[in-house]
Write a structure and sequence with these properties.
With about 210 residues, this protein is mainly alpha-helical. It is built from eight helices and two strands. The chain has two domains: about 45 residues; about 160 residues, no CATH class. The radius of gyration is 23 Å and the shape is elongated. The two termini are about 20 Å apart.
Length: about 210
């Protein structure tokens, strides 16, 4: 119940922040601007709150660098969750004071806790991952010309004009973008499939005459 209510609160302020950023040219009431200022923290965009170039002045991170950083953070959390689950599972299996049924129950409970916390973190960073992924896709490029006849034109990312589109380096980084896009699609799909499979298991047990 606590996680569900917390998700509603975080989701509300994330959408509010995104709405105010999209229409930043509007003069919003001062109280609403304060909400937008602090609601950005709920997106868990750590690299925006503490940019890398502030820590190391000589280091410049472009739009693709921001995407790689947020993906690395998500990947690190996933790996950490897997390691924690593996350690707890191994500890439970080696416990000689527990029978097989109790071991199975404890492993199931551990898996549920790890999954719950992992999905909660991924949910909080989901909006930042989506926005950073969308900002480097090909449709986010803008054509700029250096002459009046518009013959010497190049395309650049609107989110970062230091990144030129339709060059070899950009095409290579697009692979990372597509991986991030697959991750964006996979997360809600996994959230949907999990409850469906659990419900189907309960239905099957009920049909076999077990008390659900």
């Amino acid at each position: 119940m606590l996680f569900s209510k917390l998700k509603i609160v975080i989701g509300f302020y994330q959408v509010t922040n995104g709405l105010l950023e999209a229409f930043s040219y509007i003069k919003w009431p001062e109280s609403l601007e304060v909400i937008a200022k602090y609601s950005g923290i709920l997106q868990m965009n750590l690299f925006q709150m503490t940019p890398v170039n502030c820590l190391t002045p000589g280091l410049h991170v472009d739009a693709f660098g921001d995407l790689c950083l947020i993906m690395s953070l998500n990947f690190a959390v996933i790996v950490t969750s897997g390691v924690v689950y593996g350690v707890y599972k191994l500890t439970i299996l080696k416990n000689q004071n527990l029978d097989d049924e109790e071991k199975s129950n404890r492993i199931s409970q551990t898996k549920e806790v790890v999954y719950k916390n992992l999905f909660f973190f991924m949910y909080v960073t989901y909006l930042s991952t989506c926005s950073k992924t969308a900002s480097v896709l090909p449709f986010a490029c803008r054509e700029l010309c250096r002459d009046e006849k518009e013959e010497l034109c190049n395309e650049y990312l609107k989110a970062d004009y230091s990144v030129q589109c339709q060059v070899t380096k950009y095409n290579h980084f697009l692979i990372v973008t597509y991986v991030s896009t697959a991750n964006i699609i996979a997360l809600p799909a996994a959230s949907f499939i999990g409850p469906v499979e659990k419900t189907q298991t309960f239905i099957n047990l009920d049909k076999q005459g077990y008390r659900v």
